[in-house]
């Protein structure tokens, strides 16, 4: 295995091509699916509409979660809504997805997740057996993640005005002293790590939704990551930035950190761990694996002097067994992510305008 100071080899990826919802005109006065895709349209909606309306320094940080101080305690606070279709897919369902997604957002600040709220929006006519399956999945996922579902809410909408079950979870956790993990802290020289193979969640959901078969079943990677982050912090509390690459995939997560820190990122395309089934599905469908969503992976910007030890700790953890070095942070081309291709060239890895796979979380 290559160490964290070299560029490791990996199975070559198929030529990526774009398959996305057509990019709407920016001045369009209506919401489009691309606004929920985690890419350029999502960023414009947030920075152009929501943050000016709310206007506060906590929100302006735009991390995976808000970092707050109450008295002498540093808290992480996050909320997310889940509208995945279908509700059940290989490897998980909307219930464990909701728990893991919020737990992971908290963990990306280094926090130890503690409590969740859970709100259901149910469509009239939905079978109570379906609701029970989702609720039981939420309970099991919360126990596995070591968090308590402490409060919640339920609303019902008219038949035809929902999609069975929507779930919103919010969570709070405690950030340990001496930990300062923010996208703004990435700096040139940092080594970029991912915790395992990418693209599994998005392809798993798509395969069920569209009735596609790829020779082998692709299961979602949905999983809680807080204990993996704890193992990384045990090596050094000086992790600079963490992000779970959900909507918009690894490419969007890297772009967000590059933009927040004002640094450039160089990605080694062949070093990105892409499972054969995901590569095959993406090649068949014209998707770029870098933009496909994950729900149990993280990307880390780690000081070079700690990178080998952090990588070893990740690989020793069940959720980081497939961890790999995929790039580095540089002073050149600030705010831009560039990939080195297997042909020896480079390409800009930009934020997506539209959305490759809507309704995957």
Automatic annotation (TrEMBL):
Coiled coil: none
InterPro entries assigned to the protein according to its UniProt record, in alphabetical order: HypE (IPR011854), PurM-like_C_dom (IPR010918), PurM-like_C_sf (IPR036676), PurM-like_N (IPR016188), PurM-like_N_sf (IPR036921)
Domain PurM-like C-terminal stretches: 187-337
Top-level taxonomic group: Bacteria
Gene3D superfamilies to which the protein is assigned, alphabetical: PurM-like C-terminal domain, PurM-like, N-terminal domain
Pfam families: AIRS, AIRS_C
The PurM-like N-terminal domain, residue ranges: 64-175
PANTHER family listed in its UniProt record: CARBAMOYL DEHYDRATASE HYPE (PTHR30303:SF0), HYDROGENASE ISOENZYMES FORMATION PROTEIN HYPE (PTHR30303)
Family of the protein in this entry: Belongs to the HypE family.
Listed NCBIfam families: hypE
Protein name stated in the entry: Hydrogenase expression/formation protein HypE
Organism: Streptomyces luteosporeus
Upper lineage: Bacteria, Bacillati, Actinomycetota, Actinomycetes, Kitasatosporales
């Amino acid at each position: 295995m290559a160490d964290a100071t070299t560029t490791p080899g990996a199975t070559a990826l198929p030529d990526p091509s774009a398959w996305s919802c057509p990019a709407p005109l920016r001045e369009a006065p209506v919401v489009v699916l691309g606004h929920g895709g985690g890419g350029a349209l999502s960023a414009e909606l947030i920075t152009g509409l929501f943050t000016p309306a709310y206007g506060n320094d906590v929100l302006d940080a735009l991390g995976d979660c808000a970092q707050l101080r109450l008295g002498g305690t540093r808290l992480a606070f996050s909320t997310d809504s889940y509208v995945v279709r279908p509700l059940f897919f290989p490897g998980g369902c909307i219930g464990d997805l909701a728990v893991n997604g919020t737990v992971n957002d908290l963990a990306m600040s280094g926090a130890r997740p503690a409590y969740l709220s859970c709100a259901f929006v149910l469509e009239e006519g939905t079978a109570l057996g379906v609701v029970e399956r989702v609720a039981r999945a939420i309970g099991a996922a919360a126990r596995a993640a070591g968090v308590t579902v402490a409060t919640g809410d339920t609303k019902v909408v008219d038949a035809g005005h929902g999609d069975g079950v929507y779930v919103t979870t919010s969570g709070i956790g405690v950030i340990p002293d001496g930990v300062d993990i923010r996208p703004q802290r990435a700096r040139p020289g940092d080594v970029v790590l991912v915790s395992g193979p990418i693209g599994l969640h998005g392809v798993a959901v798509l395969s069920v939704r569209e009735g596609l078969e790829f020779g082998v079943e692709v299961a979602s990677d949905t999983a809680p990551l807080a204990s993996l982050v704890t193992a990384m912090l045990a090596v050094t509390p000086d992790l600079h930035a963490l992000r779970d690459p959900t909507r918009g995939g690894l490419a969007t997560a890297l772009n967000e950190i590059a933009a927040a820190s004002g640094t450039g990122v160089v990605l080694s395309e062949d070093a990105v761990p892409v499972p054969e089934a995901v590569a095959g599905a993406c090649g068949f469908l014209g998707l770029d694996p870098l933009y496909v969503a994950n729900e149990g992976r993280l990307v880390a910007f780690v000081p070079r002097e700690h990178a080998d030890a952090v990588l070893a700790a990740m690989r020793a953890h069940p959720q980081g067994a497939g961890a790999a070095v995929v790039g580095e942070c540089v002073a050149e081309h600030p705010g831009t992510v560039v990939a080195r291709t297997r042909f020896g060239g480079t390409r800009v890895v930009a934020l997506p305008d539209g959305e490759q796979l809507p309704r995957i979380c």
